[in-house]
């Protein structure tokens, strides 16, 4: 899915007027790729990468909770939630703390990705 997004954005960038102007001025493919297309793709790659990391964290925790992920001797937040669900009535924090850690980690990766996109995106410079 990430490759499709990057391919689509690359194709859209290749059809923009400033790329046609560079070709008209005699710029080679390498120059166009490294000076114009890649700088526009970096924010997208970073955002999709951080989204992928947070999705992977959530998926690993879910699979471990269901028992098909990391096996019990290896620590995992999904395993911790599964093992502590029997104590939920007496000590609910044993379930809420690992759940909150999963939530905060996924949220942190998404926020870092958004912040990096805002800093690195050349189309956002000068707009406020």
Give an account of the 3D structure:
This protein is mostly helical and 128 residues long. Helices cover 74% and strands 0% of the residues. It has helices at residues 2-14, 17-24, 29-66, 77-84, 93-120. It starts with a helix and ends in an 8-residue tail after the last helix. The mean pLDDT is 84. It is a multi-pass membrane protein. It is found in: Cell membrane. It comes from Cereibacter changlensis JA139.
> How far is it from the N-terminal to the C-terminal residue, by CA?
31 Å
Helix percentage: over 70%
Largest sheet: none
User: What is the chains' assembly state?
Assistant: single chain
Mean pLDDT: 84
Rg calculated over all Cα atoms: 22 Å
Itemize the secondary structure elements and their pairings.
Layout: H1 2-14, H2 17-24, H3 29-66, H4 77-84, H5 93-120
Membrane topology: Multi-pass membrane protein
InterPro entries: BP-dependent_transpt_permease, MetI-like, MetI-like_sf
Keywords: Cell membrane, Membrane, Peptide transport, Protein transport, Transmembrane, Transmembrane helix, Transport
């Amino acid at each position: 899915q990430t490759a499709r997004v990057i391919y689509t954005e690359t194709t859209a960038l290749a059809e923009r007027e400033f790329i046609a102007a560079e070709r008209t001025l005699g710029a080679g493919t390498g120059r166009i790729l490294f000076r114009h297309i890649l700088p526009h793709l970096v924010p997208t790659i970073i955002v999709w990468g951080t989204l992928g990391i947070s999705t992977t964290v959530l998926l690993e925790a879910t699979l471990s909770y269901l028992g098909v992920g990391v096996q019990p001797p290896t620590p995992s937040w999904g395993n911790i939630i599964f093992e502590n669900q029997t104590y939920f009535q007496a000590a609910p924090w044993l379930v809420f703390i690992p759940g909150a850690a999963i939530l905060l980690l996924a949220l942190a990766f998404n926020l870092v990705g958004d912040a990096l996109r805002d800093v690195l995106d050349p189309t956002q410079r000068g707009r406020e």
